[in-house]
TrEMBL record:
Keywords: Coiled coil, Signal. The lineage of its organism: Bacteria, Pseudomonadati, Pseudomonadota, Gammaproteobacteria, Alteromonadales. It comes from the Bacteria. It holds the Pfam family DUF3450. Residues 1-27 form the signal peptide. This is DUF3450 domain-containing protein. Residues 79-106 form a coiled coil. It comes from Pseudoalteromonas qingdaonensis. InterPro entries: UCP028069 (IPR016866).
């Protein structure tokens, strides 16, 4: 009995030892597998982290790229705009340079023209009906003075020459009366003058008994008959706005 029990214990001990040995043999591969799995997991986490970092960096680069592209497009549009402005300014500069060159040439042509205009106006006054002669001659002299003045611009000189022409033109549409003297046969006679444009220039003595008309062809005053005394008197009154405008009979010399 005891011998069987001992054999049984020995057998159990052998079986246990074998089982323990078998467990130890199986435990090593499992540990290796767990270690390998853990290593792979760690590597995977690191790889994912790297991927995440790379992705983040890539997104940042893409954003920077897009921003750079947008800025480039904006700069291109702006540069095109600036270029158009520069082109327009260059065009204006060229235009101004042409105008300046034209002004210089115009001045060269205008100055001789003004001198000719002044000479022509002076000749016209000398040939015209002799009213306000002193004032008109003084105007010519003033024009000649400003032509040699460096302080007066060319444009202002031209303006004054044109103004003198306009004044002479307006004389043709005015009716005026004034007083003065006529030298008739060596005698100075006080008279009332009346001028109807350049159509008629007449005079009447203060006593209204004598009348004369200027003959611009002969350049002298000619006596009128008594039939003109009343019309000339009415013309003088109308010129002074003492009577309403009306038809009157006046001596008129036709153009030759």
């Amino acid at each position: 009995m005891s011998v069987k029990i001992r054999k049984s214990l020995v057998a159990s001990a052998l079986v246990g030892a074998a089982a323990l040995a078998s467990n130890n043999v199986m435990a090593d591969p499992l540990n290796d597998l767990h270690k390998a799995g853990a290593t792979i997991q760690t590597a995977a986490v690191k790889s994912q982290t790297k991927i995440d970092n790379i992705y983040g960096q890539t997104q940042e680069l893409i954003a920077d790229y897009r921003s750079t592209v947008d800025e480039t497009e904006i700069m291109k549009v702006y540069n095109d705009h600036v270029q158009r402005l520069v082109d327009d300014q260059n065009s204006q500069i060229e235009s101004l340079e042409r105008q300046i060159a034209g002004i210089d040439k115009t001045k060269q042509n205008v100055v001789p023209l003004m001198y000719r205009m002044i000479d022509t106006l002076e000749q016209f006054i000398k040939a015209d009906v002799p009213f306000d002669t002193e004032e008109r001659v003084e105007r010519i002299e003033k024009l000649r003075d400003i032509m040699t003045s460096a302080s007066v611009t060319t444009s202002e000189k031209f303006r004054q020459v044109l103004e003198a022409y306009m004044i002479e033109k307006d004389y043709s549409t005015t009716m005026v009366a004034n007083q003065g003297t006529l030298n008739i046969d060596g005698r100075d006679i006080s008279v009332d003058f009346a001028r109807l444009g350049r159509i008629a220039y007449v005079a009447q003595s203060f006593d209204q008994k004598s009348a004369w008309v200027w003959n611009n062809t002969t350049k002298q005053w000619e006596a009128l008959g008594d039939e003109f005394l009343k019309p000339i008197k009415e013309t003088i009154r109308m010129a002074r706005k003492q009577a309403a405008p009306d038809l009157v009979k006046l001596p008129i010399f036709g153009a030759e």
